TrEMBL record:
<feature type="domain" description="N-acetyltransferase">
    <location>
        <begin position="1"/>
        <end position="114"/>
    </location>
</feature>
<dbReference type="InterPro" id="IPR016181">
    <property type="entry name" value="Acyl_CoA_acyltransferase"/>
</dbReference>
<dbReference type="Pfam" id="PF13673">
    <property type="entry name" value="Acetyltransf_10"/>
</dbReference>
<dbReference type="InterPro" id="IPR000182">
    <property type="entry name" value="GNAT_dom"/>
</dbReference>
<protein>
    <recommendedName>
        <fullName>N-acetyltransferase domain-containing protein</fullName>
    </recommendedName>
</protein>
Length: 114
């Protein structure tokens, strides 16, 4: 994670999931200016337990409360099926430039919230 990424999470009112012992499970946020789901991440130790689905649903509710009608996101190849299962539509292949200076193969995805 980039050094100042915690500031990005704080400045964007990120949603953070922790377990009973305050261990980080996952996080994500909505970029209201671009109507996009950003930095949605679940620790690999917790994948398959429903935390990702819970996180995305909560972020979608936050987006609706903010008056957004749709969300877009950039999904890494291993996350495409996950987002499709949550109703997101696959868009074009669109490599994503990580702030740390590397590129990830990804697809644009979209979902109407209304």
């Amino acid at each position: 994670m980039p050094v100042h990424f915690s500031n990005v999470l704080l400045n964007n009112q990120a949603m953070v999931l922790v377990d009973d012992s305050d261990q980080l499970i996952g996080f994500g946020f909505i970029d209201r200016s671009s109507s996009s789901l950003e930095a949605c991440f679940v620790d690999p130790c917790f994948i398959g337990e429903g935390h990702g689905k819970c996180l995305v649903r909560a972020l979608e509710a936050q987006a609706i409360d903010a008056g957004l009608n749709a969300l877009s996101l950039s999904a890494s190849l291993n996350a495409v099926v996950f987002y499709q299962g949550l109703g997101y539509t696959l868009g074009n292949f669109s490599p994503w430039d990580h702030p740390a200076g590397f590129t990830i193969d990804a697809y644009a995805m979209y979902k109407s919230l209304v």
